[in-house]
Specification:
Number of helices: 7
Radius of gyration: 17 Å
CATH architecture of one domain: 3-Layer(aba) Sandwich
Order of helices and strands: EHEEHEHHEEEHHH
Helix content: 25-40%
Strand content: 5-15%
Bound molecules: S-adenosylmethionine
Mean pLDDT: 90
Length: about 230
């Protein structure tokens, strides 16, 4: 692993993709123009970019200030409907992650699911329909460190949605969560051909992060954001 302080900026600004899993967010920021380093507590052999295995909050506190922009996706199992029903308990890392992000002094985004949206401060919601994806997959994004986002218009949901995790009939939209069926379809719909089921169920579509990334670059004074969502 390259130590982040050893990374020399050539052309691309540096982005820390914390809690990176298999890199849905990371790939979007890479496509936007960032040099991305992912951090996850678990080995992530499918992560397609530079990777460090370790605790994300420790890493943000130690090295976050050396990055131009930071993305965080603390685990959402604590807040998913199915986990609540099953009575599973997981650590809630949202507040400690926010504290670590704010301590860096850098601009940041922290993402989570609908069940945790009430814990995020004034989150912006992104939907697949905003990006022409055939899945709705609402995700919520808190911003900080001086960075703000105005979401694109939210198109009406006109396609019928298959039930969570169930096979997706032609013309319907899938919900790729839990032990969903149809990995090839999910890869195609969400634009994540390198991922397996474990990564897909956790990820944000790269299109979301590419859009955020283009605005982050504008915030940093590097490129103009893409016009269309
Ligand atoms: C919701 S997933 C992230 C999805 C990712 N943003 C994407 O778009 O593909 C959360 C990840 O956080 C990791 N994780 C959980 N606790 C962690 C910790 N303390 N430090 C680092 N990673 C952690 C999990 O292993 C999991 O891969």
């Amino acid at each position: 692993m390259t130590h982040p302080t050893d990374i020399r900026r050539e052309h691309r600004p540096l982005l820390l993709d914390s809690f990176c899993c298999q890199g849905g967010a990371g790939m979007g920021y890479h496509r936007a123009g960032f040099d991305v380093t992912g951090v996850d507590k678990d080995a992530q052999p499918r992560y397609p970019l530079a990777f460090h295995q370790g605790d994300a909050i420790d890493f943000i506190r130690a090295f976050g200030s050396g990055f131009d922009f930071i993305h965080a996706s603390p685990p959402c199992q604590h807040d998913t409907d199915c986990q609540r029903i099953q009575g599973n308990t997981h650590p809630d890392l949202i507040a400690p992650t926010r504290d670590a992000l704010n301590a860096t002094g850098r601009p940041w985004v922290m993402e989570n699911v609908r069940g945790a949206a009430h814990k995020l401060h004034q989150p912006v919601m992104l939907c697949g329909a905003m990006f022409g994806l055939q899945t709705y997959r609402h995700r919520y994004f808190e911003t900080g460190g001086g960075f703000t986002l105005t979401p694109p218009p939210h198109p009406a949901h006109t396609a019928p949605q298959a039930k969570m995790g169930r096979p997706v009939p032609d013309g319907w939209y899938g919900q790729f969560v839990g032990n969903f069926s149809g990995v090839p379809l999910a890869r195609r719909v969400m634009g994540v051909p390198w991922m397996n089921r474990d990564g897909i169920r956790e990820c944000i579509p790269p299109a979301y992060a590419q859009w955020i990334g283009s605005h982050a670059l504008a915030h940093l004074g590097i490129f103009a954001p893409a016009v269309a969502a």
